[in-house]
Here is the input.
Amino acid sequence: MKKHLLLFGLTLSLTLGLHSQTFTAVSYNCENLFDIRHDTLKNDREFLPESERHWTFSRFWRKVNDVGRVILQTGGKGEEWRLPDIVGLVEVENDSVMQTLTRRSMLRGAEYRYVITDSPDARGVDVALLYNSLTCRMLHSEGVRIPKVEGQRRTRDILYAHLAVRGDDTLHVFVVHFPSRAGGQRTTESYRLLAADILASRIDSIQHSHSAQENSSPAHILVMGDFNDYSHNRSITRLLSTGLSEPSASAVGLYHPAEVVGTYRFQQQWESLDHIFVSSGIAAKQCYIYDDEWLLDVSNAGDHRPRRTYLGNFYQGGVSDHLPLVLRFEIVNKR
Here is the structure.
């Protein structure tokens, strides 16, 4: 009965969503959403059944369904609930994982489609974009390669997608997972600056193309993901120099706004490496961190932290060490 009610709710939501002027975008680092099969071209052995982590099918299946549950819940509550229109996922292994998430998990009735990168990352993690096929139509997608920097590991591609979202409106979406901080912030910063420069160049090109069109509205650009940098770091400043704004800069927890002031917790402090940026053609109505109780652990001191899947090699049973960012927005046509 619950399954039938869920599918009925999804269908009703999708029908109502066709007439909605407000869109929902979600950015979520899933913390190593790997399948249980070995890819001979990647270093993914820590996520196999025989590994020290004992990454079994039942653990994988639980995690996939939990990610689907998160996506559904970020759509809101009660009569205001709508299936998120676009979802940027970080740390997803491959197409097989995305097939399971969209076709076999509790999202199977949601009519989501997806695109995913095929990056040179040594561990095999990629970024993906889910889009509601009843409110969005894919026009074009591609992976944007970041050249390797000497002394650093190859990083993930930037995912670019051009979507038709309503009438003549289109939306340019970038999903990113910038180079890691492993080895130290100073040592790795140049690699993230390179990624930011490449992304900023693509944004500038889109904006220039729109401005060259007669009577054209501003380009509608949305950038989201894990940038492995904070809002004050130079890679973020570089993106803001393109004219984008960051509605996620002031995002706090939906349920614990006085405590949850970041998307993850490091050395007893809440921080945000996850960000959402928008162009002037997008009006941000609300941006928050989704921090429902089931996504959190509570320490002996009473502090909350994300309930992650693993702590080292010890299975915790949580979804991720990050919390999702949720943005409600409208597309603005200024001519």
Notes: Confidence is low (pLDDT under 50) at residues 1-5, 11-20. Residues 35 and 220 are 34 Å apart (CA to CA). The first strand starts at residue 22 and ends at 33.
